[in-house]
Specification:
560 residues; three-stranded antiparallel beta sheet; 17 helices
């Protein structure tokens, strides 16, 4: 691809960069993946409550809006029970020693407090760890950027005692109150437990802690190239923008119009929040009329803990995997799935028009980040176009998906996705093939990023943030993508659908075939087979019809 960005290696002398050396596993150490913030032993494990304890007051009174039930059906609650994550982490650990500890900080952060994340394999996790991102975890988070008169005054001492205070929002660089004092955004609360008022709970930076991920072992150089760091050394810079991008959701939002004044979306997102949405919480924690706890007042602006994204296929996998797990309520997962589906179906729209014998289909990104966003592997969206004659016969199709083979015809449609790759140097050093790869932990090249930008997109700013468009051109300000198709003779109708898919056959089989150390690759593949093989999800559909006839000078008179 002519637009790809190629990357090189660090200076000679580091073990992994020796020319011609092929490694079964890059021998990195825990120091390579150390990040600022709370470390093992900084918080007594007894100071974090189980989610079930929170349920006593914050659950079982309004399943559609209460904090506990809405959280329990989300990937936040189920991160420690996600077979896709464990298959991904197994393959990453096989490629790079100790990388799993870095992964566990976001997916099961309680395991950091309890010391079990020190085992990069994940084999030391227990039931408490597998509660995922728990209620008490988020509600004990300290804003690392202390603001006098705004932050709880207790936070000043916490940060002063910390060895390394995070200066950036990313890479699970969280800070927890070691005493476990709970925090909330309301000053008029009626909690029976201690509750410090902290605006940080409503700040998008809290979300960005785990939704901006760079490979801390791969750094950007002054010339824009990326190089592996030396082994057994902490990252030279913890700014995520200087690291190879693995997820840039927070950055994409931060550089969008949503973060810079908000956008009037006419009620598409946000629940009772109003027309204008700006923060992560505005869209992913929509407000509703509910209580925060069973004995508290009814509030019209109660933020639900849905955390709905695009996780429909992952929730299907988790539901199948946990079918006999007494700690998981399938009704909660079903409700979370429905909310994720609703979010997907509001994330994009299609506009159809025709002129001069062609149909133009515009896919509009309605989100506050790229479409799709999140973890880069296996996720894609594309436009399917089908043109019919008056008898309903299919004359032309673009972007056909063969369900029997779980295969997309990519040659005749734009696939909105990000792909990473290994440079020739990386391939020589690791023994992996150069080019597009599913070995994300080793990637040093952005091969492709055709995902649709959000409102407020700026090429220079996104490139600086490690989120450039690659292999496609978007103008500054563009948050849509256009596809033009010549209308076949006798066509009278076009149907357009944009599909989303996160469990592609290629990716699932790569995780299965690459797994040589445990069961997760095969387990994931079996669950994928039994839950519909990652069938694509229709995000939006539109139809345009016109009368049959010969296209000529009076064509515009026929446009509906």
């Amino acid at each position: 691809m002519g637009h790809r960005i190629g990357f090189a290696f660090a200076a000679a002398g580091t073990l992994i960069l020796t020319a011609g050396l092929a490694l079964a596993q890059v021998p990195m150490t825990p120091l390579d993946f150390r990040v600022p913030g709370t470390q093992f032993g900084d918080m007594p494990a007894t100071n974090l409550q189980k989610a079930g304890n929170c349920r006593t007051c914050h659950g079982d009174f309004n399943a559609s809006a209460e904090p506990y039930a809405t959280w329990a059906g989300s990937l936040m609650a189920l991160g420690g029970k996600d077979p896709l994550f464990f298959a991904q982490m197994t393959n990453a650990n096989q490629d790079v020693a100790n990388v799993g500890t870095f992964c566990l900080r976001c997916h099961v952060p309680v395991a950091v407090v309890r010391g079990h994340a020190d085992d990069a394999s994940g084999n030391s996790l227990d039931a408490r760890d597998r509660e995922g991102v728990t209620c008490h975890f988020c509600h004990s988070m300290v804003d690392p950027q202390y603001q006098a008169g705004v932050s709880p005054q207790e936070d000043a001492a916490i940060l002063a005692a910390l060895t390394d205070v995070p200066q950036f929002t990313s890479n699970a660089m969280f800070v927890l109150d070691p005493e476990g004092r709970r925090r909330g955004p309301r000053s008029d609360h009626q909690a029976d437990h201690e509750l410090l008022v902290s605006p940080f709970l409503r700040d998008a930076r809290l979300c960005g802690t785990c939704h901006d991920v760079g490979n801390v072992a791969v750094s950007r150089q002054a010339n824009g190239s990326y190089r592996y760091n030396a082994i057994n050394a902490e990252a030279p810079d913890h700014d995520p923008w200087t690291q190879f991008p693995l997820e840039r959701t927070f950055t994409e939002w931060q550089l969008s119009a949503f973060a810079n004044g908000g956008v009037d979306m006419g009620g598409r997102f946000g629940g009772n929040r109003g027309a204008v949405v700006s923060s992560c919480q505005d869209c992913h924690m929509p407000t509703a009329a509910s209580q925060a706890c069973s004995y508290g007042p009814q509030r019209q602006d109660m933020a639900t803990h849905d955390f709905a994204g695009a996780a429909v296929p992952s929730l299907d996998l988790i539901a199948a995997w946990t079918a006999n797990d007494p700690t998981v309520d399938p009704a909660h997962i079903a409700a979370g799935r429905a909310k994720a589906l609703s979010m997907l179906q509001r994330a994009a729209t299609i506009e159809l028009s025709r002129s001069a014998g062609t149909v133009l289909a515009r896919v509009v990104n309605q989100t506050g980040h790229k479409l799709p966003t999140g973890h880069i592997e296996g996720r894609r969206a594309w436009l399917n176009l089908r043109l019919f004659d008056a008898a309903g016969n299919l004359l032309l199709e673009k972007g056909h998906y063969d369900a029997a083979q779980a295969h997309l015809d990519e040659a005749d449609t734009t696939v909105y996705e990000m792909q990473v790759a290994l440079s020739d140097d990386a391939a020589a050093a690791t023994g992996k093939p150069a080019g597009v790869t599913t070995h994300m932990a080793l990637a040093d090249t952005i091969w492709k990023d055709t995902r649709i930008p959000p409102r407020g997109f700026d090429n220079a700013a996104f490139a600086a943030g490690g989120a450039p468009a690659v292999g496609i051109s978007y103008a500054d300000g563009q948050y849509w993508h256009d596809t033009t198709v010549a209308i076949p003779a006798n066509a009278v109708r076009v149907d357009a659908t944009i599909y989303y898919q996160s469990l592609t056959r290629h990716y699932i089989e790569a995780l299965r075939d690459g797994n040589t150390t445990d069961h997760w690759g095969q387990t994931l593949h079996d669950l994928w087979q039994s839950t519909g093989r990652g069938a694509p999800i229709a995000m939006a559909s539109e139809r345009l019809t016109w009368g049959a006839g010969v296209f000529g000078d009076d064509f515009e008179n026929d446009v509906p």
